[in-house]
Description:
Blueprint: H1 7-10, H2 16-29, E1 35-36, H3 48-59, H4 72-86, E2 95-98, H5 101-112, E3 118-123, H6 128-135, E4 139-144, H7 155-161, E5 166-172, H8 184-195, E6 201-205, H9 221-224, E7 232-237, E8 250-253, H10 256-269, H11 275-286, H12 292-311, E9 317-318, E10 326-330, E11 337-338, H13 348-357, E12 360-361, E13 363-364, E14 373-377, H14 382-397, E15 400-401
Parallel strand pairs: 1-12, 3-4, 3-5, 5-6, 6-7
Antiparallel strand pairs: 2-8, 7-8, 9-10, 10-14, 11-15, 13-14
Amino acid sequence: MTLSLSARVQRVTLSANAAARQRTRELKAAGVDIIDLTIGEPDFDTPEHIKQAAYAAIARGETKYPPIPGVPALRAAVQRKLQDENQLAYQPENIMVANGAKQVIFNAFAATLNHGDEVIIPAPYWPTFPDAVSFNGGTPRIIPCHLEQAYKLQPEQLAAAITPDTRWLVLNNPGNPSGAIYSPQELDALAAVLRQHPQVWIMLDELYEHILFDGRQHRGLLNIAADLQERTLLVGGVSKTYAMTGWRIGYGAGPAALIKAMVVVQSQVSSGASSVSQAAALAALEGGLDFLAPQQAAYQQRRDKLVALLADVPGVEVLPPQGAFFVFCRCTGLLGRTKPDGTVLENEADVLGYLLESGVSGVGGSAYGLSPYFRLSIAMDEDSVVEAGKRIVAACARLTQV
């Protein structure tokens, strides 16, 4: 019997991050010495008080179906967090909890997009953004933002991209994979364009808001342009800050009508997020951020060492990330060079394959909308990050220019 797949599922692909990591696991299982820098999750453990809160919730019998928008205590904690940390005012009806930030994004596009609706997505982007748009019948409008513009959308690019069919702008700040952070002045310039187009909604992904370098403090678009809050969905979660990727808790904050429609979508897709995970997330939000400074320092030291190693590699260009835990590299200068076996590196895939042969696994930039680039994660112990950098340096030194 032939299985007939829907057009919707054929519009998307398996996550490139997941595919790269799976390939790395297979090679390591076969005994190949590879340092895996594909990983997009903290290498730190979930703080103990959060795990204890989950145990206690189980012991209390909090294992039944939870409310679809999220348990009231957690929504109230998100409300307090947004007020205290972000200086943003929301009511409980403006907040929903989902099975990770990815589901928040999917819910929003499922609730609002019709065939032909456009969503502006600056590249490099997190791959979920365009795929979630395509799956829900929309059209991703990709705007390339290369290294020369620090991987950040420019106001003139935004103005040129908006059409009568534009429904959303996606803004990821700090960015994955770039680590780029918009300055208040840059956000103000984008806000000025958005005010001219009231039909355009804004999706703010700020999951990496606490993973910042060089003493930076997070300031989002709504801190600069409060008037845009009435058409903005703020996407957050506990996965990156609290090392809780596997707990699958994200949240969205936005206008009540949008949140209500997103809850309807979620009611038919997954129902409410795990009650035990919600208890853990509540403890996370109520437990403070004292644990965070050493982790930030560790990420920054890894960044500094990897960037320093790559800075002197001919053919590789690196802009030091300002946040998140990735280093995004342009490898245009490696194309056309010859490997020791006489094979020429003709494209990004060849470069990634050569690095894999040299014992380092990364993810190609085409997965994030820009090529030829590659992403390296620094969510790995420092010794491994440094060794990976040394392997890349040595591998590039073995290349010859035709």
